[in-house]
What does this fold into?
Amino acid sequence: MMARTWIWLTAMTLAACGRTELWVAPPAEDGGGGEAPGTTSVGGSGGATTTTTTGGGPPDGVCGDGTLDPGEGCDDGNLVDADGCEADCTLPACGNGIVDPGELCFGSPYEVTQGPVLIFFGPRAIDCDADGDLDLVSVVGTGLFEPTVISVLINDGQGAFGDVVVNSPLSPTHEFYASFDVGEFDGSPGTDIAFAGQSQSSPHALRLFQGRADCRFTPYQTSALSEPHVYPRAWPVDGDDLDDLVLLRPESNSLGFGRSGDGYKVNPLSSDPQGLAPVTTGDLNGDGMLNLIQADPAAGTLLVRRTLTSSPWLGAPTAYPVGTQPFASATADVDLDGHLDVLVYDRGDDQLHRLLGDGSGSLGTVASFQSGMPANARAIDLVLRDLDADGDPDALLTADLPDGTALRARINEAGAFTTSAASLPDTVLTGEATPTTLLVEDLDGNGAVDIVVATYLKRGAFSGRAFLHVFLANP
It folds into this structure.
């Protein structure tokens, strides 16, 4: 009998999957052992799933066979998620619960408050109840004449914060000029707290609290401070397993440094006490000791100090000219060459300035990129984290505006920060809210980093009211 041969060819070029697909049905003979049109074939190899069709055409589709069939958004030859084509042969999309490389998805922010909280110091993210989820610890006050307390918002594992653990008051009355940080100071289980402040009933003091598994903190050491505005920071400066304390002292234009269990030594800071910029850290030369990095807004420089293993603990600063009024800084390997680099957010020229590290402790020539902030923005904070899950750190910044808080993301493309994040719109948190803290952590355990912005209201009926704005990624 004469053989009947049918062939169906389809060529389709897809931008999403970036390939051309070709499907050829094999010839079959009447009455032979082959399958002629109109029959149904079930099965597949390599884990592919088959959908079947009868009626004279090719199969409707086999997801995972590397062939793009009708009804498939993509088919990359496997049944694996997060590789640019999902296991069900759909294209990556915000809201599908899968974090794909290069995907940046954030939901609308929701607000977290703790009743009539007027002051939020923090938050910091710690797993205080040892359940694997990051909780938010803050120092909060409910009024000018009310006690200030350590408060912990308990994470339910999905990035929502319901239960609140409120510790005993730090003092009988409200704390002024307060600041705190978390770290491991005493070597015991649990994250500890370093708190600096002054109340109506007690002088300026640095107080250390030992963390417990029930999210409560027990005071164990108090040291007098000679000035009110002191900002403690917990960093493992000397390379051991315990965090050391770095005390920023803007009024005396100095920095205090002490190893865990020791008193602190005073070292000079930048030349502008009124414009004292935040200090960040990074091991720029790979010797296991952190460098302290701080912008000097008045001089237009970035100061880098080596930490030493003995007194005076800090070496002389190396100054790098950068911008017009540099302020916030952050460290990360932005060009993926294995060396830490520094990014600086400038208040004067509204730019991000990048200084590449060479691994020896030195920083190279400055390259500048627009931050995208409004003209009247005042830089507050800068964080470098991989927001879009593509393996390189992106920039997230906050700024104070006359009518609210501005939040911007700038995506890293081969070490250059020139791309705005389309799925994180240029956000303004209205209500004349001033940003205080920017936190970027994975709060819901889905592998993507989430964003927390702490703000307080500057004016109006709720002046001083504090809020946490939580942006969950890939909701």
